[in-house]
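so my prof wants the structure for this chain in the tokens format not the other one, which i didnt know existed until like an hour ago. anyway here's the sequence
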Amino acid sequence: MKEQLKGAVADKIVHSHTSLEKCLEVIRQMDGFARSQITIQHIDNIMIGGGRHEFIVTVETRNAIHNLLSSPEEED
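here's what i got, hopefully its the right format
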């Protein structure tokens, strides 16, 4: 699921049964403004926020919440 802002309102776009390539394509389209959040539901919930070169990844499991922050120096 990805969100696209249109003013103060966000359209939610759901891609069911998508591929890894499609997920990576959507992540690369994130700009930090109009497209700044996606959620991937697999075994756990994975949320990716940000855009351009800075991201935060949150993984929620039954027992914990894990956050990973990107660094501007680490483009991969």
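also thought this was worth mentioning. The chain has one helix and six strands.
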